[in-house]
Amino acid sequence: MEYLVLKIMILATIPFYSLAVEIPLVRQVALKYNVSCILVFGDSSVDSGNNNALHTTMKSNFLPYGKDFFHSRPTGRFSNGRLATDFVAEAVGYRKVIPPFLDPNLKPEDLEYGVSFASAATGFDDYTAEVSNVLSVSKQLEYFAHYKIHLRREVGEERAEFITRNALYIISMGTNDFLQNYFLEPTRPKQFSLEEFENFLLSRFAKDVKEMHRLGARRLIIVGVLPLGCIPLIKTIRGAEGCDKSLNSVAHAFNAKLLQQLNILKTKLGLRTALVDVYGMIQRAVTNPKQYGFVEGSKGCVGTGTIEYGDSCKGVNSCSDADKYVFWDAVHPTQKMYKLIAEEAIASFVTNFF
């Protein structure tokens, strides 16, 4: 009864379209259920700087990226500030940021508070990572195994096992599998129809989750694929004034299949799971920015807002107030949009896990 009241109180603080999370209450839930840390896998939506250590062009460790981060410091995050995972970590009571596992300045004592293994430009398909020379999910899981070794050395076997089994695992990827792989590179379309490719991605996802479970994962949040046709760069390439409906339908259909697969894995492996509807959130923010407190939903804050991302943002001016924009560059959301996504993830965490 005590927890039911707490849960209702938290949900009451999260009104539709204007998310606001009562942090002390969320931390009570996290403490009550021993949420030990946040462990993150995925692409640029959750890469806090791992690509800085790689020989790849897919980096953002330069201004104007990080313009609104602490001390206006570019970190390798593809946004003007923090990512959704950073806000989730802060909400449950740990650090204000999730450090990248490959950060040369990462200290052993930091490991128990969580890290990100994510790598910008990766996807469920290992070939997606190969195209940009970034970390595949297989490699991210290999680093996770290394993380566990370092963690055991730091805190001991029993504590390390407790941390990994009670961590909140977040997976966010899929966009690059379509935009940088299937719809751009010739290899996969020769091998798979679109539906077959989606099923292939789901099989890879299932394989990765099973390996994650073997390594200790029990609580899993999946961030769905965003509306591909609403990304400013894609609209520019396609010459679409509004969102490209055909690409949005691909993302929408894949998210439905992803949820199905997640439910199968939930039952089979005994996981606690939730799927964050980033598709719906971003589509609503783009089509009606004011409902989330934005002014501009059709283009990014950097440069023209229609084509610039990654390297092409170097030395380019940005808007004066990124909080008015859904997108930071022509592909990635602003810190404010990520905060809203984080609050949706936290709401899913509270309602679906306990």
UniProtKB/TrEMBL annotation:
Extract the Gene3D superfamilies matched here. Answer: SGNH hydrolase (3.40.50.1110)
Q: Name one Pfam family in it.
A: Lipase_GDSL
**Which SUPFAM superfamilies does the record cross-reference, listed alphabetically?**
SGNH hydrolase
Q: Which GO terms describe its molecular function?
A: hydrolase activity, acting on ester bonds
Q: Which InterPro entries match?
A: GDSL, GDSL_lipolytic_enzyme, SGNH_hydro_sf, SGNH_plant_lipase-like
Where does the record locate the signal sequence feature? none
Hey, which family's this protein in?
Belongs to the 'GDSL' lipolytic enzyme family.
Give the protein name, as stated in the record: GDSL esterase/lipase At5g45950
Question: What is the taxonomic lineage of the source species?
Answer: Eukaryota, Viridiplantae, Streptophyta, Embryophyta, Tracheophyta
In the UniProt record, the gene name given for this protein reads LOC106775146
